[in-house]
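Supplementary Text 2. Reproducibility record for the structural model of the 141-residue chain.

All settings were left at their defaults, and a single model was retained for analysis rather than an ensemble. We include the record here because the model underlies the residue-level annotations in Supplementary Table 4.
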Amino acid sequence: MAGYRPTHSRVIGYIVWLFGFTGAHRFYFGRPISGTIYFFTLGLLFIGWIVDLFLIPRMEREADIRYTPGPIDYNVAWLLLAFLGFFGIHRLYLGKLWTGLLYLCTFGLFGVGYIYDMWTLNDQITLINGQPQASPGPPAV
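Retained model, structure tokens:
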């Protein structure tokens, strides 16, 4: 398939699956509702978490179809959110300077902004990646 660029990594999916009883892998693959359910039920009492071990390849394929590749790498943004999200580093990576600094000063808007970004990060990246890129060089006449 010429020009195919995956947006989500199966390896990162399995890494965040290790914390999957919190719903992390479901948020990563763009399933925020089931991610929230997993968060509050410990991965549906760990049973859903084990089942998801076998569902990750399908979730990866669906995420690659649903989201737009581009200059912002989903994997980098999700790793930054997962490990430095309360400090807004992922927002700085997305080019959102002011909200990144606000997260830095307010510990991710007291955690609420961090949860919001777990729900919407894939869509935020898709919006940025879907914008036309400025072409380098002189403007066409």
